[in-house]
Amino acid sequence: MTTTVSAYAAPSAKAPFEKITVTRRDLAPTDVLIDIKFAGICHSDIHTVRDEWGAASYPLVPGHEIAGLVAEVGSAVTKHAVGDRVGVGCMVDSCRECVNCKAGEEQYCLAGNVGTYGSLVDGEVTQGGYSQAIVVDEAFVLGIPEGIELDAAAPLLCAGITLYSPLKHWGAGPGKRVAIIGLGGLGHMGVKIAHALGAEVSVLSQSLKKQEDGLRLGADHFFATSDPATFEQLAGSFDLIVNTVSADLDMDAYLGLLALDGTLVQVGAPEQPMPVAAFSLIPNRRSLAGSMIGGIAQTQEMLDFCAQHGLGSEIEVISADQIDEAYERVVASDVRYRFVIDVATIT
Ligand code: NAP
Ligand code: ZN
């Protein structure tokens, strides 16, 4: 017996969201049924819905920042019990056998990880978290520690891990000068996490409008990139830069801010390619890299780290009928700092 639940879907790239019903599969022995309480709105949802990355299928229920409570477990589930506070991020499965999966990097599964929404599984497209409930294999269900409210925890499942993973990989910590480009959903978690790791943190934002917030969230310095003097002042001064911007940037200008052996990690995923001059990389032996979310074990590590350091996302909780408006505000960089849908408003 499958379960039918209400959800909010994009009927096409341009039409407003509407309520639909989706079916959730019957529980396999290792499956968990989760009553979703909150779902974050990630800019990736917007890129996907608006078909900016191509290959979107409709109707599409986005949502890969899911927090809720376990409602039912399959007969062989050991990791989670009914009533547990749990989360689901961008993946709901992977091959589990390839070298990357075995290394705990399921996001880079050689067969392709199964996305929480928009992936084809047995002829059906997966549908995400803007919905009342979801069924996920226990291996891809994370425990949300006590100490983080479910609404503030939801964005950690994508925004949190997408920043935690590169910050750890490239050694953000005491003595490292880290810059975060873009103070949005991802960027604000980057500031909090890099600060908690002990790094010296700078924010590179379009203007100084968010300066007070940035400093309160843990940044040591805040700069406006609309001011050309910023690029002269900061030339060659960062060990690590994480670019969270959802739009095209002048990569050469930002690469010029890297110190000797510095790395610029691209996590923002704009629609268009961004050119890079060889002579932006050659001086100071600079690196340009990319990073995609994080593996399941590291996602749990990040949640535990956030609980230990009292970190959650700064959120604005909305009802499901406000999704279209929220999308417009995210695109206009007018979000402080993540919209989270109260799933109780999906009836
Ligand atoms: P977001 O909340 O919209 O934040 C992006 C921020 O970038 C904005 O708040 C703004 O910050 C800055 N920005 C926006 N437009 C800009 C422009 N034209 N020029 C300069 N700066 C601009 O988005 P998000 O949810 O954090 O996602 C950011 C990007 O990461 C998206 O492309 C998303 O698809 C991608 N993403 C990647 C991964 C991954 O695994 N790699 C995971 C999740 C999301 P200021 O106001 O401070 O300038
Ligand atoms: Zn996301």
Tell me briefly what this model is.
This protein has 347 residues and is of the alpha/beta class.
How would you describe the overall organization of this protein?
This protein is of the alpha/beta class and 347 residues long. It has two domains: 3-158 and 294-345, Alpha-Beta Complex (Quinone Oxidoreductase, Chain A, domain 1), CATH 3.90.180.10; 160-290, NAD(P)-binding Rossmann-like Domain (Rossmann fold, 3-Layer(aba) Sandwich), CATH 3.40.50. The chain is 24% helix and 27% strand. It is built from eleven helices and 19 strands. It has helices spanning 43-49, 99-102, 150-153, 159-169, 185-196, 211-217, 228-233, 251-255, 278-281, 296-308, 323-331; strands at 3-9, 18-24, 31-40, 66-73, 85-88, 91-93, 114-115, 120-121, 124-125, 133-137, 142-143, 177-181, 200-205, 221-224, 238-243, 258-266, 287-290, 315-318, 338-342. The strands form five sheets. Strands 3, 4, 5, 10, 11, 18 and 19 form a seven-stranded mixed β-sheet that branches. The chain is globular. The mean pLDDT is 97. The site of NADP nicotinamide-adenine-dinucleotide phosphate (NAP) has 29 residues, from helix 1, helix 4 and helix 5. NADP nicotinamide-adenine-dinucleotide phosphate binds at residues 42-44, 47, 158-159, 162, 182-187, 205-206, 210, 244-247, 267-269, 291-293, 330, 333, 335.
The CATH class of the largest domain: Alpha Beta
The ordered string of helix (H) and strand (E) elements is: EEEHEEEHEEEEEHHEHEHEHEHEHEHEHE
Instruction: Name every ligand kind in the structure.
Output: NADP nicotinamide-adenine-dinucleotide phosphate, zinc ion
> So, CATH architecture of the largest domain?
Alpha-Beta Complex
Low-confidence stretches: none
Annotated CATH topology of the largest domain: Quinone Oxidoreductase, Chain A, domain 1
Q: CATH superfamily of the largest domain, called what?
A: Medium-chain alcohol dehydrogenases, catalytic domain
Beginning-to-end CA distance, first to last residue: 21 Å
- Please tell me the total number of domains: 2
Number of strands: 19
Let me know the largest β-sheet: 7 strands, mixed
Shape: globular
- Averaged pLDDT: 97
Helix content: 10-25%
Number of helices: 11
Structural class: alpha/beta
